[in-house]
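Slide 14.
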Amino acid sequence: MKKNTYLIPIFLLFYNINIAQISQNLDFRFGIGSSKNFNFDGISLNLQNELNLKISKNFSTSYTLDLGSNFAKFDKILYFSNNINIFLHPFKDKNNFNFRVGSGISKQFIIEKILNYTSVNGIKTEFIETTYYSPIGFNLIFENTFEIDQLRFSPKLFGQFYNENNINIGLIFSTILKFK
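Slide 15: predicted structure.
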């Protein structure tokens, strides 16, 4: 045990350097926007949290948690989705903008409440049918990050294509917190 104690400070040094390098390549994005799911009535309000890790000069990856809610006349939808994406940065200006194109996988958890009517002997009755399901799909994302002074923001256009012909297309506006 005694002869390996000199390795502890060396390990801690490399561990701290590694954490410092990773934190320089991390950013957190909080966004708000709307989307249209073509299987439901109305437009959804979306809140999105995204953690990005820059892998190299031209590539990054992200984990996104998206919460959405749709309150249409007959459909009431609440969903959240987990997304893992990888991005290519084909056009980049060091100071002003960073355009990126991404794709990834998504798992969505949906609670749907549908207002239905039935009529028996001329008496109309309302009832609510609740459905839970969780489709899997892939994402296609176009995003451009702008920086003005210390303010960073990005509009994001996305499409999520799920099984069962469930398509969700939307626009999110995000502010960005860069870790130092």
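Speaker note: The beta strands are 26-37, 44-54, 59-71, 75-92, 97-120, 123-133, 136-148, 151-162, 166-178.
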